[in-house]
Amino acid sequence: MKQFLKVFILSVSHYPERLPFSCAPKEEIVFKGVRNIVVEMDETKQEPLLKGEAFFYNPNSMKMKLKEISVDVLVDGKLSAKVRQDLKLPIPPKSDFSVPLIATLSLKELGLLDTIINLIGGKKYQIQYMGFIRVSVHGVTIKVPVKHKEELRIRI
């Protein structure tokens, strides 16, 4: 019996995928994109707020929890905002789910006068979202990459 346990422990430690059970999901969560993007003025700070929803699909038969959002927002290739949120949002099995994204845009890098003129005129900007979300399944955390690029007309 001791010999069997030694062989089992050694094989599991070198080949965990051979376990008949596992806490980790079998399939990765799928990032489907960012939609419903709007830019509004934050009345208190007088800065533009970028709001949207990141959409994902959980193909697994187990429920999960969204623990963290860590996404950088780049405008025309320059870092303009960081979304950092700690959450405990339930993710149902075999379903789509969305995560709200809210970021204050810092358009200083683009030049103040040019930015004001472009915002009034409704210039198109290249918006890029890069980072990850972290989900938890039975205490095991997994990073899901977020990488999305689109052109957006920002107008105030």
Q: Which homologous superfamily in CATH is the superfamily? A: Immunoglobulins
Q: Averaging pLDDT over every residue, what do you get?
A: 74
* End-to-end distance: 73 Å
Order of SSEs, N→C? HEEEEEHEE
How many structural domains are formed by the residues? 1
The percent of residues in helical segments reads 10-25%
Number of helices: 2
Strand order of the largest sheet: 4-3-6-7
- Low-pLDDT sequence parts: 5-21
Main sheet record: 4 strands, antiparallel
In words, what does this structure look like?
It is a single chain. This protein is mostly beta strands and 156 residues long. It has one domain (26-153): Immunoglobulin-like (Sandwich). It has helices at residues 2-14, 112-121, and strands at 30-42, 47-58, 64-75, 78-91, 95-104, 124-137, 140-153. The strands form 2 sheets. A 4-stranded antiparallel sheet has the order 4-3-6-7, with no helix packed on it. A 3-stranded antiparallel sheet has the order 1-2-5, with no helix packed on it. The radius of gyration is 21 Å and the shape is elongated. The relative contact order is 0.22. The model is unreliable at 5-21 (pLDDT under 50).
